[in-house]
Amino acid sequence: MYRWAVLRPFIVRPLWQRPARVLPALLGIALGTAVIVAIRLANTSVLEAFVAATDSLGGQTDVRIYGASGPIDERQFEQLLWLEQYGTVSPILETYGMLVDRHVEAIADSSRPLARGEVLMVLGVDLLQDQQLRQYDVWQWAGGTEKPELFQMLEMLVEPDSVVLTERFAARHGVEIGDRIRLAFGSRVVTLQVRGLLRDTGPARTWQGNFALMDLATAQAITGRMGQLDAIDVRFHPDRDWQQAMNEVRSRLPSGLWVEPPAGRAGRVQTMVAAFQFNLEALSMVALVVGLVLVGTTVSYSVTSRRDEIAVLLAVGSSRWAVAGLFVTEALLVACAGAVLGLPLGHWLAQGAVQATSRTVETFYVAAVAEATAGRAALSASESLRCVLLVLVAAAAAALRPAWQAACLDPLQVLHPAHYPGAMGRPNRPIEPLLWAVAGGLAVAVPPIDGRPWGGFLAALSFAAALASLAPATIRLTASVARKLQRTAGITLHLAAAYLAAGGVVTSAAVSALAMALGMMFAIAVMVSSFRTTVVYWLDSVLTSDLVIKPVMSSATLSSATLDPQIVDRVRRLPEVRAVTWYTSRQIPFGPSMIRLDTSDLDVLLEHGRVRFKEPAGAALRVRDRLRYDKRFLLVSESFSLRYKKYPGDSVVLHTPHGEVALPVAAVYYDYSSNLGTLLIDFDVYRQLFDDDRPQRSPMALSLYLQENTNVEKLSNRIRSLVGKDQLIYCVTNKELRAEALRIFDSTFAITYALLVIAVLVAIVGVVAALYRLIQLHRRELALMSCVGLTPWQLKKIVLVASLLTAMLSYGLGWAIGMALSIILVYVINVQSFGWTIQLHAPWEFLAESFTMVVLAAVLCGWWPARKAAGVDPIAVLRDE
Amino acid sequence: MNEKQHGGDGHWEGQRVVSDRLQDISTSRLGRRAFLAGALSVVCAGCREFRNRSNPELTVQVNRLPGGEAGDPWCRAEQPRAWQFPGDHGAHPEYRLEWWYYTGNVWDAAGRRFGYQLTFFRTGVRWQPANESRWALRDVYIAHLAISDVVQRRHQFWQRIHRQGPGWAGVESAGRRIWNGDWESRIAVDSSGGTCHQLRAESGALVLDLLLTSHVPPVLHGQEGLSRKGSAPGNASYYYSFTRLKTQGRLQWDGQRFEVRGDSWMDHEFSSSFLEPSQQGWDWFSIQLDNDCELMLYQMRRKDGSHDPASSGTLVCSDGSSEVLSAEQFQLVPHESWKSSHTSGIYPIAWSVGLPQHDIELDVRALFGQQEMDTRRTTGMAYWEGAIDVEGVWKSRKVKGHGYLEMTGRIPKNEDAHG
User: Fold this and answer.
1) Which of B130, B160, B168 is nearest residue A218 as measured by Cβ atoms?
2) Number of domains comprising chain A
3) Residue B28: what pLDDT?
């Protein structure tokens, strides 16, 4: 029976009186909780921004019609006039523009790519229709203080260079009615006049006020997208049944056009980033895992040092469950305190996490989640509660074994004075690592669920646990080896090893914790290094051109920033340019997610070796051959191939204005620029299928191959001066592009490194704590040794060597864990999450450096316990006996 | 844009201002669809005011055609014009306002009667579109569609407003096609020299597919088609009508299909003039009698209750000749009224029409009361437009007939404010 009366004096009072004992565990839990909270906040805030934008933009839209493989040709609009029988029809152009200010211009001038300007979501509408779908509340306009009538607002919008911004944006930038602002669309910079400001409601709330409203005609003209629409929004008549109307519309739409509710797009984005977010959340658990191991350690130590009291409790009639329950409660109390500390800490960390995450998401997935717009997010009360509950449950689980060990004590054995503390507790059964390993093996075979690599992470955890549970055996082995080597290595080593081995579960727990943390750190380091090496290799092989030209506003996949046709023409005609390759990429819906549809002049692309093929063998030559007689095929990226199970010979269906077209897959190629999955088709085929030659006239990037001995820098400057003030491009060499790509890569993983450093720090704290506890446990032995004649310096040495041994054992075990984990990360998790295969590459320098650091840390951390050990008063200790 | 009788979401406060202004309209002599001209002119007035306020130099930069005022590019109706058909059935974009207005009474084989209205409006908003985009705004196109079922005493209407866009609305030359979304009228000259109009409109439960033919040329109103609106020069419109179009075709409503025949009336009017602001509204009659004569009358009502001398009409005789009627030559006396529960407007639905000098006395009665059109969302106004029966004496002979009646400006001021 669990006696509440016992809890207070047995558990609570000692905790209260000597909190230092549980400090490492508390810290570990606090940090772990903080990291989980921060990552959870980062993930939700980024998506929330997007979902909120979709909501606020959607207004009263019931369904959205869009091109299945690109923008809608407005000539199709005349065949859609029947839509009005279902409701109000509003054609729109939805695009992104970047605010061009002095700052951005300065960066662009210096040719550093990806000038990060503030991005606005721009909506071009026909107000006559759109005002029935979206609420535009004009706050200020040039016409006076009263709100404008519909036609006045229409007139305001149809002026040639007119834009309406939001009051929030205006407040942030000090913009007033009549001011001019410059926005970049692709490479083209336009000057617009602010003619109105919208109140912060409806669409004006999008991206926290980074929203601009234009007339549809104006939007088409300034973005160079005459003849194109991005979507047609429909609001059904109130008497129409939504589902029936949508089904009817869907059946009547011509081929190449799709219809879905506005939230459909948000759903796709969620699917796109799901793997990325899941991985991040899984990684955030690492810090918690270490904290949990520390909780387990703390409880173990508590059990170990209080075995006499436990024996008494058992002797006077406490049930085993009650005793176990007491220690689980101890763990819960510590975890609770840690979690409560961790919550506000997590919110504090969140800002950095949000920025880092949104930058990555922006780079790879969603345009315009600009830093200014990743707003202050906060976890709701229920979410916070869920985090805390998770931590508590995990802590209870971690405390279960030591608690049960306490409960299984034989009081008679314990109270016998001859009982030796280190022999208490069952040694780890040899079967245990085996069980974990088997579990891990099974988990590896589990395919991804919803694109999330659950199996991979569970396998990683299992293998880590398997190896960590080898710690006691490893310690015992070390001790016996040291004993055998004492003649050559000296007695200090033997004593230190024995000292550790005698610590029993305290030592092994500390070693396990540090080994886990180090192992995870190594695994991530190996994975990142493997990834980086693979990407560098890939970049080196595909970045073969001398100069690359892109629009400044071209950061992300959802942004369709293209180069102005004039620039393309002028550059092509330069005498120094020997050859040019170009490409255009477009995001299209595919299944529940999105993929990219890329097009280029394949022959030229392949001639310049811009594509690295994965399969089939000899694909480079075979594809070029095939181009000669039949261009109707697809090249698919590895991510696409793995995710959708399409291999050479399979076919993929594209939805074109002419109907569904199935194209065969000719080859699979490597593409590390995005995990979305890409289809690459030759431009001639693209033009036939989509009646659109824009990708060639206005591509997203131009790669130039120059004549021999051309001065690249001079040509760069010349090109920049050629394009004039109203174009914003960046013109960079291969080297700069490569450096930029790697910079993005590194910044993407910055957050991962941060997490790991935290985990390792926590583990080190655990080691220090363990060393202190060891001193407590071995007071008697230390006192005896002191009496027998060991000097304080020799005692210090023993502790220092013990500390060093701990570090090296942890390091060794950690290394093993790291290798196992990295193999799973590289070959299972990465592949399942992103569809990238990467070559395993261990960063030996890093591993060597870390060894030095761990050793140094161990020595430093061992210094204080060593001093304490040397300061033990033997007479006082022995007298207590 | 499918509205039932009580449609109009009115979420633009501006509607109130628009309607207020319409209450202040006055004209001296007005084309038939003056209220719409009023509404549209307010639209244009609003636009012009805004433009003048915000960008004064714009009006000076635009092209000026003969007839335009200084600073205003739109042509004005000042002199009678040389009409050319079928060319003039098309659009006249140099004038700001224009409409093609069809109304008619049709019967199916079993004698079930319907009244219909299909109107296409064009309003010039910008003289020069801002850029080459097909969406660049030049004209706004509004269309109204209404049906009255006499047996069930049921009336339904729809309204649309569009810019031209890539074929959303527009007018082809010679009126070959006048359309707004999937509502259209196609005007053609047939082999015998007659004119036919093919009307097609579909909206929700209603499908209209009618062929209207006339073998006589259109009737020019006023002075050879120049219909004066006010005392100031240029305050006028160009205006003609097909006063009797033989109609046949198909009508489908609420799943029931009817093959119908009957008579229709078509007006085409264009102008750039604005209205003088002292008028309350007007009442307009189009009457087709069984003696092959037609009568068009309108009276402008002033706010003080009197009738404006600009009121006018046209008498078309069976031989095709037409006579212009001045305000003194006819009397319109209202009798029984109907009150709208939706707008609180009070509309006389029974009238006595007298032309003493011509020995004509007619009784006009609306087929039923609820034929109000709440088109505030597109024109800023609610008005009554419905089918009528006519009976009386024409030069000592009994006559019967049918037609359409239109009444505006009969909504109490505070009600008109509600969108």
Assistant:
1) B130
2) 4
3) 29
Answer yes or no: do B125 and A158 touch at CB < 8 A: yes
- Put simply, the answer to whether A77 touches B14 (Cβ < 8 Å) is no
Alpha carbon of B46: minimum distance to chain A alpha carbons (Å):
6
**Residue at which a domain ends, from A426, A460, A492:** A426
Residues of chain B with Cβ-Cβ distance to A151 below 8 Å are 14, 43, 46-47, 125, 140
- For residue A369, the model assigns a pLDDT of 45
A829 vs B105 pLDDT, higher one: B105
Q: Does any domain span residue A770? A: yes
**Mutate which of B19, B22, B42, B50 to test chain A, going by most A C-beta atoms within 10 A?**
B50
Q: Looking at A724-738, B13-27, B235-249, B299-313, which range is the least confident one? A: B13-27
Cβ-defined contact of B167 to A77 (cutoff 8 Å): yes
Compute the average pLDDT of residues A516-520. 81
Q: What confidence score (pLDDT) does residue A110 get? A: 52
B6 in contact with chain A, both atoms CB, cutoff 8 A: no
- Taking contacts as CB-CB distances below 8 angstroms, the residues of chain B near A71 are none
Chains A and B: how many Cβ contacts under 8 Å?
Answer: 126
Q: pLDDT of A230-241, one tens digit each?
A: 999 999 999 889
A221 and B129 in contact by Cβ < 8 A?
A: no
Please give the residue range of the domain that contains residue A324: 1-55+282-426
The minimal CB distance from A221 to the residues B17, B131, B160 is found for B131
Span A687-739, pLDDT tens digits: 999 888 888 888 988 999 999 888 888 898 888 888 877 777 878 888 887 88
Average pLDDT over residues A384-389: 85
CA distance A581 to A561: 17
User: Are residue A327 and residue A380 in the same domain, yes or no?
Assistant: yes
Q: Kindly state whether residues A513 and A637 are assigned to the same domain.
A: no
**CATH homologous superfamily of B14-63+87-416:** AttH-like domain (2.40.370.10)
Asked if residue A474 is part of any domain, the answer here is yes
Inter-chain residue contact A158 with B140, CB threshold 8 Å: no
Judged against a pLDDT cut of 80, whether residue B83 lies above it is answered with: yes
**pLDDT above 50 for B15:** no
Res. A372: pLDDT tops 60? no
Residue A84 to residue B160, Cβ atoms within 8 A: yes
Q: Are residues A51 and A64 in the same domain?
A: no
Is residue B242 over pLDDT 90? yes
> Which percentage of chain A shows pLDDT scores above 90?
17
Give the residue from A699, A727, A755 where a domain finishes. Answer: A727
Q: Are residues A406 and A522 in the same domain?
A: no
Model pLDDT, residue A2? 56
Q: Do B136 and A149 touch (CB under 8 A)?
A: no
CB A122 within 8 A of CB A95: yes
Residues of A with Cβ-Cβ distance to B136 under 8 angstroms: 158, 217, 221
A143 in the same domain as A226: yes
A511 and A587 housed in the same domain = no
Domain assignment present for A274: no
Both A411 and A494 in a single domain? no
pLDDT at A488 over 60: yes
Residue A266 lies in a domain: no
**pLDDT, position A783:** 78
Q: Are residues A559 and A659 in the same domain?
A: yes
**pLDDT given at position A661:** 92
